[in-house]
């Protein structure tokens, strides 16, 4: 059995009628990179990368560097392939587009591996600890008319109630675009709207320096927020460490970090309470195993970042199946020592359209797919509808 063909699909969907701001950017479209690997017996595997910035750079890495060297290789060796190709590109590709490209390839190879042996990826990773995982809803971004304060607050109240009504266990809001006093008002509104019994998290997308993060973090302590995500820029390890020492609210981060080497420094440096690797960016399932081992050896909870298409959600569910309680207790306590899945509640056809299955919340949880590989089926026609650039690598490339 050999790899015969690799297809890359750059996906883009305009969502201007559902556009929003985070602290860092204006989102008027959803984008991602899907990869399909086809073997000479017809077995296919799907992977995803290219979610953070333009998907074209990781697509180019696959087309020009990684893909041609994979043709003819035995597919059911994802760990060996990752190690080899990471080593080949480490002089210039320790972070960013190359690791995202390797992540997409790695996920697709694990998907193939699972299909070859008739087992879900989580079985190959050691076996499921859970059959389903609690979901929290990401939303509460800033609308395009965020400068109109009354309108913005009304929309925020409506969105909080809508997210909660979808059946999620907790809600994560965005902060960092407005002056701190205005975001404090938004945080108080969310707590007032949801009441005291619903967990709330805040994600700043690294909008603050240490002093500003302390100021808004004190209010999170008062309002009993579950975690403070990406408070400072990812390069500011000292800022992370000082915040963790200063604030009582747990500090989360890692979506902008790559491979076990990045998380070795983030976790070993005492920077975070909750690690948030993205399987589609940090190194696929191969590096997920290593990051999980690092985190659990430091008694750190792992809650992966999830942002992309339905393939990304399926990959995260497979990964979350094997996450132990941190720390272990006879009865896991939600959001205390039990992991969760991020389930973005904003408009995203790439998440909702490209699989033949639908992710359904039941009792605040998503079920972990049990079929071979990723356990889901990609709708190739839907991929083509959202694809703006398709390239093929094969023996003739």
TrEMBL record:
Keywords (A to Z) from UniProt: Magnesium, Metal-binding
InterPro entries (UniProt xref): Enolase-like_C_sf, Enolase-like_N, Enolase_C-like, Mandel_Rmase/mucon_lact_enz_CS, Mandelate_racemase_C, Mandelate_racemase_N_dom, RHMD-like
What's an example Gene Ontology biological process for this entry? carbohydrate catabolic process
Cofactors? Mg(2+)
Return the Pfam families for the record. MR_MLE_C, MR_MLE_N
- Segment forming the signal sequence: none
Checking Gene3D superfamilies in the record gives: Enolase-like C-terminal domain, Enolase-like, N-terminal domain
Report a single Gene Ontology molecular function.
hydro-lyase activity
SUPFAM superfamilies listed in its UniProt record: Enolase C-terminal domain-like (SSF51604), Enolase N-terminal domain-like (SSF54826)
Q: Which CDD domains match?
A: MR_like
Q: Which PROSITE patterns match?
A: MR_MLE_1
All copies of the Mandelate racemase/muconate lactonizing enzyme C-terminal domain together span: 153-250
Q: From the record, give the transmembrane residue ranges.
A: none
Can you tell which superkingdom this protein's organism belongs to?
Bacteria
* Listed name of the protein: Putative mandelate racemase/muconate lactonizing enzyme
Organism per entry: Aurantimonas manganoxydans (strain ATCC BAA-1229 / DSM 21871 / SI85-9A1)
């Amino acid at each position: 059995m050999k790899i015969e063909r690799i297809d890359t699909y750059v996906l883009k969907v305009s969502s201007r009628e559902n556009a929003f701001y985070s602290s860092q950017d204006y989102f008027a479209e959803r984008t991602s990179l899907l990869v399909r690997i086809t073997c000479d017996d017809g077995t296919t595997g799907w992977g995803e990368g290219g979610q953070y910035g333009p998907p074209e750079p990781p697509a180019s890495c696959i087309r020009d560097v990684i893909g041609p060297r994979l043709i003819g290789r035995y597919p059911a060796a994802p760990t060996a392939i990752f190690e080899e190709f990471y080593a080949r590109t480490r002089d210039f590709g320790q972070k960013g587009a190359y690791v995202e490209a390797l992540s997409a390839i790695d996920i697709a190879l694990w998907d193939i591996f699972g299909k070859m042996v008739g087992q879900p990826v989580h079985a190959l990773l050691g076996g499921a600890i859970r059959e389903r995982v609690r979901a929290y809803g990401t939303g509460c971004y800033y609308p395009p008319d965020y400068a109109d304060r009354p309108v913005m607050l009304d929309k925020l109240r409506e969105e909080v109630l809508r997210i909660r009504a979808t059946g999620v266990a907790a809600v994560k809001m965005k902060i960092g675009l407005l002056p701190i006093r205005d975001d404090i008002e938004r945080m108080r509104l969310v707590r007032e709207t949801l009441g005291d019994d619903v967990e709330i998290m805040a994600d700043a997308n690294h909008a603050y320096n240490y002093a500003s993060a302390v100021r808004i973090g004190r209010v999170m302590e008062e309002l009993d927020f579950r975690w403070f995500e990406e408070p400072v820029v990812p390069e500011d390890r000292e800022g992370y460490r000082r915040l963790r020492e200063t604030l009582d609210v747990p500090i989360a981060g890692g979506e902008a970090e790559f491979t076990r080497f990045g998380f070795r420094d983030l976790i070993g440096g005492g920077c975070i309470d909750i690690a948030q690797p993205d399987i589609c960016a940090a190194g696929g399932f191969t590096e997920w195993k290593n990051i999980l081992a690092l985190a659990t050896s430091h008694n750190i909870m792992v809650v992966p970042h999830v942002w992309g298409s339905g393939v990304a959600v399926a990959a995260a569910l497979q990964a979350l199946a094997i996450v132990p309680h941190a720390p272990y207790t006879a009865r896991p306590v939600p959001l205390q020592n039990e992991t969760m899945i991020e389930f973005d509640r904003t408009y995203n056809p790439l998440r909702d359209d490209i699989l033949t299955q639908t992710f359904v919340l039941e009792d605040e949880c998503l079920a972990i797919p049990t079929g071979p590989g990723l356990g889901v089926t990609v709708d190739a026609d839907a991929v083509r509808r959202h694809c703006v650039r398709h390239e093929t690598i094969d023996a003739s490339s």
